[in-house]
Write a structure and sequence with these properties.
With 339 residues, the chain is an alpha/beta fold. It contains eleven helices and 13 strands. The strands form two sheets. Strands 7-1-2-6-3-5-4-8-9 form a nine-stranded mixed β-sheet, sandwiched between helices. A four-stranded parallel β-sheet has the order 10-13-11-12, sandwiched between helices. Bound molecules: threonylcarbamoyladenylate (TXA) and magnesium ion. Threonylcarbamoyladenylate binds next to strand 4 and strand 5.
Length: 339
């Protein structure tokens, strides 16, 4: 075992926090079977205690320690997408502390594919976890509650500083936005999509024969469990932010500049935006845009402008749905309506 992984495992066993890379975003990890360690996550993030955490595992063989009544669809999805950017919500096994699940009777589980995450998870489990023999690492995105998720080790240090005992650096996250979340916990009810992500409903349908139910738009139904990513305002910069149709971006930026407003602009593709105070350009593809999105938002946020103008994406196209979801919540969380 490499020395840094060994140090990370020892810290987790001692109930400390270790941030680690995943293919989606960086996670803020703690021994999921240790309620005191889990409480440190909530304190560091300033996250409300009733928001559940995702438990990360290194091996699908350990799923039964954390979940019960695992339906065949969950087994099929695990075989198809794990390790990878998919989280499944399943009925909670009795040994899972309520601190992890936000008091709910379900638990979110995922096996990430980043090699460093897998190495950490497997080493932690091989050492018996934190002494409870469970070997899971609870990890939300390593940002303060409601803020932009980190996609590099430096983002985590900037965001959380000394609250984290160790930040494992695995380079920039390849996917760049959080995992797809599918709820498979409801007996006799179809799977339901709680958070869109890199793995699309069509990919899920190709494995289990039907697309998951989509969350109904607007206000959330009463039976949807608490998902902080489902809050209208999330993933937010501190600077005000507005979503603008691509075709209007250059003119609006010029108009605002003429009125003395300094705009940071997030554009996609080749469009020229001459009047931007700060410009970040992302590829005009869903994967490329997702990969660069949070770094670009962070940089625009730090650039000291008055307003971030972000090019809207074609959210009614399934491939763009996850990016559209993050952009909409970022703009909402930053206190500006999308247009
Ligand atoms: O890609 C990801 O999923 C990243 C990396 C680090 O794995 N993690 C992540 O965690 O995004 P977090 O805590 O920032 O977002 C997880 C979401 C939250 O909105 C939480 O409410 C939801 O998953 N969640 C966790 N357990 C749940 C449960 N039992 N029922 C419903 N939602 C749950
Ligand atoms: Mg998060």
């Amino acid at each position: 075992m490499n020395a840094e992984i060994a140090a990370a495992v020892a810290l987790l066993q001692a109930g400390e926090l270790v941030a680690f890379p995943t293919e989606t975003v960086y996670g803020l990890g703690a021994d999921a079977a240790n309620p005191e360690a889990v409480a440190r996550i909530f304190a560091a993030k300033e996250r409300p205690a009733d928001h559940p955490l995702i438990v990360h595992l290194g091996d699908v063989e350990h799923l039964g320690r954390w979940a019960r009544d695992i339906p065949p669809a969950a087994q099929q999805l695990a075989a198809a997408f794990w390790p990878g950017p998919l989280t499944m919500i399943l009925p909670r096994a009795t040994a899972v502390p309520l601190a992890v699940t936000g008091g709910q009777d379900t638990v979110g589980i995922r096996i990430p594919s980043h090699p460093l995450a897998l190495e950490l998870l497997r080493a932690f489990a091989a050492r018996g976890g934190g002494g409870h023999g469970m070997g899971g690492i609870a990890a939300p995105s390593a940002n303060r509650f409601g803020r932009i998720s980190p996609t590099t080790a430096a983002h985590v240090r900037d965001e959380l500083g000394p609250a984290v005992a160790l930040v494992l650096d695995g380079g920039p996250c390849t996917v760049g936005i959080e995992s797809t979340i599918v709820d498979l916990s409801r007996p006799d009810r179809p799977p339901r999509l709680l958070r869109p992500g890199h793995i699309t409903p069509a990919q899920i349908a190709a494995v289990i024969g039907a697309e998951p139910e989509l969350p109904s738009g607007g206000s959330r139904p009463n039976d949807v469990p608490r998902v902080s990513g489902s809050l209208d305002g999330h993933y937010a910069p501190r600077t005000a932010m507005r979503l603008v149709p691509l075709a209007q971006l250059a003119a609006l930026s010029a108009d605002l500049r003429a009125r003395g407003v300094r705009c940071g602009v997030l554009v996609r593709g080749e469009l020229a935006v001459p009047a931007a105070a700060t410009l970040r350009r992302l590829p005009d593809t869903p994967d490329g845009f997702a990969h660069g999105l949070y770094t670009a938002l962070r940089e625009l946020d730090l650039s000291g402008g008055d307003l971030i103008l972000a090019a809207a994406v074609p959210g009614d196209e399934p491939a763009w749905a996850a990016v559209a979801d993050r952009l909409r919540r970022s703009a909402h969380g930053a206190g500006c309506q999308s247009t």
